[in-house]
Design brief:
eight-stranded mixed sheet; Rossmann fold; alpha/beta; 8 helices; 10 strands; two-stranded antiparallel sheet; single chain
């Protein structure tokens, strides 16, 4: 006959395993468009769509949408720029949704186009670097080609107040350019370690000339280990946004003292970004 203490230990382990299973957040699902073709840009790319937990169970519910640049780096470690170092967006979204710190959202990861990335993610041609200037066409691809497909295939909330854009580095630069020029489409955005330095900080002039009465909800961040110039650029952008009317209700600046310019650093901030863009609200 088993000793009573052994029986109690066995029972405790079973209960602990059950509690651990209950504590694990229910995962969302990933779907793909393997070769999304753009006539505007003349190329194709993979698009990965995260559907939040419960999407299939609630056919009446519609969801806000977050579009994200550099989709290769977001969901799967083997596809990341540095294999094994991805943003863990799926895990961050699952946890934030399960704990009700962020709304259930659809997340659309849009791959970059490899060699054309610099051109597509920059608003002007930088003569010193001999390239750039197709961010306007990139915006048209997102708005005229991709967004209608996503809105048609999934239960989205297509209004600008429920549509966000995010990116890091040059993707952060592209994000701000797109949002400043199309606030009627994207009402929220995250600028993660943005490349403010491009073309003598041309993005600051774009902020200065922004005319819309509406202020898209903006997250801006930078890592403390990204260099003096990167921090100075982020501070200049922060100050310019505040000067142009982005107040506490529509803007948040975050500085990560340990953050460098890497997917690993951005992964640490992913959940905070989701919670800022689409905070959970009780109905």
């Amino acid at each position: 006959m088993r000793d009573l203490s052994d029986t109690l230990r066995s029972t405790f382990r079973r209960v602990l395993r059950l509690e651990n299973r209950r504590a694990a957040p229910r995962p969302g699902n990933l779907e793909r468009i393997s070769a999304f073709k753009s006539k505007i840009l003349g190329n194709a790319r993979e698009v990965t769509i995260y559907l939040p937990p419960g999407y299939e169970d609630r056919p009446e519910q519609r969801y806000p949408v977050l579009y994200m640049h550099d989709g290769q780096n977001l969901f799967e470690p083997h596809r990341a720029f540095i294999p094994g170092q991805h943003w863990q967006v799926r895990e961050a979204a699952d946890a934030a949704i399960a704990e009700r710190t962020a709304e259930p959202i659809i997340i659309v990861g849009v791959d970059n186009s490899g060699a054309a990335r610099i051109d597509e993610y920059t608003p002007t041609r930088d003569e010193e670097r001999g390239g750039g200037g197709r961010a306007g066409d990139h915006a048209r691809m997102l708005i005229e080609e991709l967004k209608p497909v996503i809105d048609g295939a999934f239960r989205t909330r297509p209004e600008p107040s429920h549509t966000a854009l995010a990116g890091s580095s040059l993707g952060g630069l592209a994000t701000l350019h797109v949002v400043l020029n199309h606030p009627d489409v994207f009402g929220r955005a995250a600028l993660i370690s943005p490349s403010v330095w491009w073309d003598s900080r041309v993005i600051l002039r774009e902020v200065e000339s922004f005319k819309s009465a509406e202020r898209p909800r903006l997250w801006l961040d930078m890592g403390g280990r990204e260099g003096v110039d990167a921090l100075a650029g982020a501070h200049a952008l922060r100050d310019k946004l505040r000067e142009r009317g982005w107040g506490e209700e529509s803007f948040h600046y975050h500085e990560d003292p340990r953050g460098d310019h890497s997917e690993r650093a951005w992964a640490r901030r992913t959940r905070m970004v989701l919670e800022f863009l689409f905070p959970f609200a009780e109905l």
